[in-house]
Write a structure and sequence with these properties.
about 160 residues, alpha+beta, five-stranded antiparallel sheet, 4 helices, globular
């Protein structure tokens, strides 16, 4: 569901070979991401794969919380989904599915584009509800664009980016 009163773009072009595509209800390609135990540990703190019905419920929930997008990279003249991100003031969860794509600054480019969107919408801050302390790659990614840890959570910290600076 788009943010009330704000038009969600179908496509957010991030730059050469990278874009965000508005969630359209089709997600079969994402099921393998959420069945990877190593990714599940980063997402939920446990290595328990999601069955397809849980992936569906997760996307329905995320779509109701803000603007849900699939992260797509250009491969051989075709954009291919490789992750997802939900944009809202209160949370900004992001997942890159295929392990070989992690650490390639895709997440940083996605966050930079969404920070620009937040500024254009007049937001004064963005929050990430929880990044686990053992998920150093996510910590590094969010901190690289200005997010700072705020309060401690059960397994990590929430992060905030002040856009008024």
């Amino acid at each position: 569901m788009p943010i009330p009163g704000i038009q969600q773009p179908d496509i957010l072009d991030i730059g050469p070979g990278l874009r965000l595509r508005k969630f359209d209800g089709v997600f079969h390609f994402a099921i393998p991401w959420y069945q990877d135990p190593s990714l599940q540990r980063l997402v939920d703190g446990v290595q328990k794969p999601y069955p397809p019905e849980r992936v569906k419920a997760m996307y329905e929930y995320l779509n109701a919380c803000g603007e849900l997008y699939f992260i797509e990279v250009l491969e051989e003249d075709t954009f291919t989904p490789v992750g997802d991100v939900t944009f809202s003031r209160e949370d900004l969860p992001m997942v890159l599915g295929p392990a070989p794509l992690r650490g390639k600054h895709i997440g940083r480019r996605v966050l930079t584009a969404l920070i620009d969107r937040a500024r254009a919408l007049g937001y004064d801050s963005l929050t990430v509800r929880d990044i686990f302390d053992f998920n150093t790659a996510s910590q590094s990614c969010y901190q690289s664009v200005g997010f700072r840890p705020t309060k401690q959570t059960k397994l990590g910290h929430s992060y905030r980016l002040d856009l008024s600076l």
